[in-house]
Amino acid sequence: MSTARGARARARIEVTAAIKDEARRRLAAEGAAKLSLRAVARELGMVSSALYRYFPSRDDLLTALIIDAYDSLGETAESAHAEVADAGPRERWIAVCVAARRWALEHPHEYALIYGSPVPGYTAPETTIPAASRVGLLLIGIVRDAHQGQGVARPPLPTDLKVEAQRMTAELAPDLPPEVVAALVAAWAQLYGLIGFELFGQFNRVVEDRETFFRHAADQLAHGVGLIFPRPTRPNAAHGANGRGTDSGRANGA
Amino acid sequence: MSTARGARARARIEVTAAIKDEARRRLAAEGAAKLSLRAVARELGMVSSALYRYFPSRDDLLTALIIDAYDSLGETAESAHAEVADAGPRERWIAVCVAARRWALEHPHEYALIYGSPVPGYTAPETTIPAASRVGLLLIGIVRDAHQGQGVARPPLPTDLKVEAQRMTAELAPDLPPEVVAALVAAWAQLYGLIGFELFGQFNRVVEDRETFFRHAADQLAHGVGLIFPRPTRPNAAHGANGRGTDSGRANGA
DNA sequence: TCAGAAAAGAGAGCGCCGCTCTTGCTTTGG
DNA sequence: CCAAAGCAAGAGCGGCGCTCTCTTTTCTGA
To answer: Which ranges does the entry annotate as DNA-binding region (chains A, B) (predicted)?
Structure first.
């Protein structure tokens, strides 16, 4: 498997990894548009044509980087989630959102690669799907847990969305109510709108304290998916004792 | 001014326009990454070096296209808004959102240019700011009208966001309450998250009936900014105050 | 009016790019 | 042990952004 039979096979794995590492370094430093096979090869002391033995084209190398980026983001989100696994849905939801934002700010070019405009004429191959789903699955899981604890509520859907919402539900989370799934998918997209706007400069003369703004917006997203936030067990937590001052009006539903 | 003094000046205007037109054509056909000055020049029957008399670099040409794209989007949104100018805030809000989405679907590469990842190492010059603000101003205007009719309400802000929200309010819409402005900015970003996810394929095996889904999501965004949708012409709508099945918890506030 | 300034086009060229093809060398497996 | 397969290297093709030089055309002001 991984320790394949010959020295040749091992070398191939090592060289492939070295290429990806160097490419990732250059991607982080200069962005996808300036990522050139020739520069990677140069840095690795090999001739550019040799590199084609490992990645048949620049797009294939980019695809590998895309998958890695999805995985890196997914791992970051998952470990952030694990750290608050025992907390309530609200904390967990926000932890995942905040982790995604932080990852994006730390890896802007990788983020742009996966959630910005797709490169040239390029359409992502199906290989990327599992890696791309990790954050989404995390969010679904949080809502699912909340739902099993009766902590999710959403108003009924308009009739024209019912069919589609049921379809999405069957596909994504058959155990959740369609109203919740529809709201979840929207929140998922909106989360990346918030991150993207900050990252790509649309907030430039608009939002200054972006961390605070984002936490609040993520909190509102949680409301949007119908997560209910009961006053945190302590009846007398009016001032400051509250997780982080990010409360807002009550969300209640049917 | 526009008809400047000589034939030379007139020619310059015409050639500049021809270059932009051809560039826009190629941008729409192949995307920003494949837009090359040489190809544009070739198509126009001029030699590539001559083109540099009009645009000192590829990035400058792209900047011109960016401004045009913002203007095109802004115009589309504004005319869509004008068509429902007499309707309620909800219809107007949705009309603007739907128009933005439609424009994006019709001009994917232009959309990617302005709201996707910024090209190469490129940061948008300040020239683009006015053009970029048009849709945002439209949304602010809708909410402002609703507010003057007492049709906007939001729960109070968490304390840690108050300062920033007041700053944003002073900058963007001093006549609106800070809670509304904060929600508006978030909704603005979220709108483009929804559009971008559809456009860039993130909805691919997730959402099928995207038009319906989007309308619903845009409706929810309107709720998010605190737009209240009174039951049409019914005066006493204290309790079940929802237009269709699309209400979410009560929004109430100052 | 007419010479000099300014603007514009044309061409050659530099260094980069993705990618291909051919040529030899090394490892591998029957 | 030897043929097949894997691999590095080099040369080369066409395309790119951009610069520089040279010539022609147009504009301007004394």
So the answer is: 36-55
